Target: Nanos-type domain-containing protein
Amino acid sequence: MDSYKLFQDYLGLTTIVWANDLQAHMEEIMLQPWQEKDSNDLGISVDHFSAFDPLELMRLDARDDFQSNGIDADLDELDMYQQQLREQTTVEKLIVESTDNPVLMEYLALKEKRRARKQKKCCAFCKNNGEPASVYQSHVLKDSEGRVTCPILRKYTCPFCGVSGDNAHTIRYCPKNEGDAPGLALLKTSRLSTGKRRSISK
Model:
């Protein structure tokens, strides 16, 4: 019994993938006489396609397309409509579409809010604590399920209840904190998460 050879073509895939002479093979197929039927399953005569050159047809289509869209003609109807859509703001689009269907208006407004929220990738905790933009724009405070994703807040342990990680919070938001929350100035540390000293603005 022969041993397994790593580079042996057991399934003959090289003959499928790499045709030695693709052009000759295509010419042979195109010039083959059609002997089976005079028409195909669609009822179209095969003689109609005997002088068919697909490359020439593509060239003619490309030339016509260029003449109608490139030089000889102005913008067609579809191009003008697309240009109008690009120029409209989202609010204008919603106003236009809301006249037809109020349910659609509500759905589109909700969808727009979600899209705007997803685009705004910013951690409010880090931003309020004076972290550089490169830090607070690199993540969000919580995920869609309400779990804390901010790496700095996740490491923080609440002194009142001892919670950290997914449910981490500051003293101000602690459910066991019954008294007045200390001001933001007391919550800020003297150093940023990067270790640099915080600049004190007065």
